[in-house]
Specification:
Rossmann fold, single chain, alpha/beta, binds ligand DLZ, globular, 4-stranded parallel sheet, 172 residues
Length: 172
């Protein structure tokens, strides 16, 4: 198991670009809020740490993970953002609700990204147990909210660099 080997939230901070001029949307689901709000904190703090201005981070809370994609689309209609990060946690239960919600969010964000050529980041935990979620929301495997923020920063930068017509992006 990859995540059993290392804390995936560790990254080389010096390799990330400054994002002072970038805007972000964060959509966070309230279901399992003891998990998702920890993801949000990790995500928000990471954006601020790398230079994002508070006024350029637009946060929206939604009831559950299923609502993430719709709210992400609404947010991009209202605000000019360089990336949208969606955070949620669907814990497997007795029924297969988790499969429907998780697939729907995955496909929804993929479709939004393709349709708008904008990064929509999948920050949805899909654990089998609550403990697995806690381990990834500031626990022994780090915080997936931090990782989602790092991905958003890199993707926002990618879009800007593509506009500069560089020959190679991401190889130094
Ligand atoms: C209904 C439901 C269930 C059973 N479990 C979760 C969950 O673990 N995590 C989550 O984010 N949302 C859950 N929901 C709510 C749905 O995402 C959605 O809010 C409702 O089905 C209404 O569309």
């Amino acid at each position: 198991m990859a995540s059993a080997l290392k804390n995936l939230s560790k990254y080389d901070e010096s390799k990330l670009p400054d994002i002072e001029d970038k805007s972000f949307g964060i959509v966070v689901a309230d279901w399992n809020e003891h998990i998702t709000h920890a993801l949000y904190e990790g995500c928000y703090d990471t954006l601020i740490k790398h230079g994002a201005q508070e006024e350029n981070i637009h946060t929206v809370q939604v009831p559950g993970a299923f609502e993430l994609t719709t709210a992400a689309a609404m947010l991009t209609q209202r605000h000019q953002v360089d990336a949208v990060i969606c955070l949620g946690c669907v814990i497997k239960g007795e029924t297969t609700h988790n499969e429907y919600i998780n697939h729907s969010v995955g496909m929804g964000l993929t479709n939004l990204g393709i349709a708008t050529a904008k990064p929509f980041i999948f920050g949805l935990l899909t654990p089998n147990t609550e403990q697995q979620a806690l381990d990834r929301a500031g626990g022994k495997y780090g915080n997936k909210g931090v990782e989602a923020a790092v991905t958003a920063i890199r993707m926002a930068d990618l879009k800007q660099n593509l506009g500069k017509r560089k020959k190679k992006i991401g190889f130094g």
